[in-house]
Write a structure and sequence with these properties.
By secondary structure, this protein is α+β, with helices and mostly antiparallel strands. It has a domain of about 130 residues: 60s Ribosomal Protein L30, Chain: A (2-Layer Sandwich), CATH 3.30.1330. Helix content is about 30%, strand content about 30%. The protein is globular and about 60 Å long.
């Protein structure tokens, strides 16, 4: 086994229902995982969050007819940094509403329109992780970065999809169900 693969296995990060294996080029750790191993016996459910973008939730809407579709009716926020942050914010809200968290993400796909936007997108991505889920910044997940993507609206610059594995919860015991200070 190569030194690189030994390092990948040695530095694997364990989560409640999956293991993240970092990826190395020679001695440099890359900002993505080489692999993620999901332990299905520890998974309660899987969540696919598909196609989140920088659409402006206050002003965006679906086209009402073919003419509006051709004109690209719909609104997005700012540039690639703002759109990246908006997409991650929406993903976070959705996961939390479903009883999951950003920490449960094991796979991330990013579709980027302009190659030149990669560094700005990456900075916004990293800043969001550091602020909201440092474990994602420390142990990046496996995924795909597709550049030169053609997205739904002309001003849309980035789209993000994730897959999360929600761990099984321990069943509540009678001791846990008792109110504090009530004895027993």
């Amino acid at each position: 086994m190569s030194d690189r693969l030994q390092k990948m296995i040695k530095e694997a990060a364990e989560y409640p229902c999956f293991t993240v294996y970092p990826f190395y080029h020679d001695n440099d750790k890359m900002p993505w995982a080489g692999a993620v191993e999901v332990h299905m016996d520890k998974v309660e459910r899987l969540i696919w969050c598909g196609g989140h973008t920088g659409r402006d939730p206050k002003t965006d809407r679906q086209p009402r007819n073919w003419e509006e579709e051709r004109r690209g009716v719909g609104k997005v926020v700012g540039g690639v940094k703002e759109q990246t942050t908006a997409a991650w914010t929406r993903i976070k809200e959705i996961l939390e509403s479903m009883g999951a968290s950003l920490e449960d993400i094991f796979h991330v796909d990013i579709f980027l329109v302009n190659r030149e936007d990669w560094w700005d997108m990456w900075q916004a991505y990293h800043d969001f992780y550091v602020k909201n889920c440092p474990g994602l910044a420390e142990h990046p997940r496996a995924g795909v970065l597709l550049k030169y993507a053609k997205l739904d609206l002309p001003d849309m610059l980035v789209e993000i999809e994730v897959i999360a594995a929600v761990p099984k919860r321990r069943p509540a015991t009678k001791a846990r169900l008792k109110a504090p200070g009530r004895g027993g």
